[in-house]
Predict the 3D structure of the following.
Amino acid sequence: MTTPIEASLQRDSRIKKWEPLVWLLAFAAPLLMPSHSLLVSEIAITALFAMSLDLILGYTGIVSLGHAAFFGMGAYSAALFAKLVMPDPLVGLLVATLLATILGAACSVTVLRGSDLTRLMVTLGVGLILLELANKLDWLTGGADGLQGVVMGPVLGLFEFDLNGKTAAWYSLSITLLLFILMRRWIHSPFGAGLKAIRDNRLRAASIGINVNRRIAIIYTLAAGVAGAAGGLMAQTTGFASLDLFAFDRSADLMLMLVIGGTGWLWGGITGAVVFKLLHTVISNLTPQYWTFWIGLFLVVLVLVGRERLLSPKTWFRKRAA
């Protein structure tokens, strides 16, 4: 007999009616807007990166300002693998994801103890350490000039990366969709329910038998792997890896995206990434010097007025799905 908790998890894990339509529109975007294919690819990668942070922030309550460390690790791993070993994008992406996952496992011990402020400083420190290492090891990483000339082979041996970016867009969207489905299974499982219990009250979660430290370490490691996959995609689709992939502002931008889209909801990361990248693109074209002012103003209005009153995509989707 199905318990109420199992029934709730099964209900939440069901695909909503509007979700296939959204993904179909996303995959059709390179055909409908061929001149913006590279933007579609960048949005897909950014959305994947934002969802990886939401795994630890929205579902576990772990605040991090160094999530770009795993993104940069994945990017440099994929780029170096393509230059030094073989240019196959799928194998390179797998290697990048694996190395970022290992780094996440090593860093997971840093978020198990201490307050939120301690975690902020430690996670930020890890990102800065990797940034400096990438800068100093210029014989390997290119240093301040970045790792240039990354040439990728065709995806599955069939689809060449083109200048218009259509292959890059479909490749990025496919990996993002695949990992989205995987992350959805994680959070709508007993493991994910335990994470939400930890987020709501860590002491109470421990008192009912949940191994808090183990679950935090596992989800932090998995989130690092997803972020590494996003970084690998960025390096493969742009043919370049630079120090700014480790920069603090990249992690801070993720926070802004989750403020826009909402935390504890995978579609919040996607919504935030879409809105943020579109605002960035449109506003920076109009006022290149002051685009951050207008995005900041938008965030202030969003916080003061409230996401619900502005009828966020999260609310809109949920109303349609109800």
Q: What stands out?
A: The chain has 15 helices and no strands. Residues 318-322 have pLDDT under 50 and may be disordered.
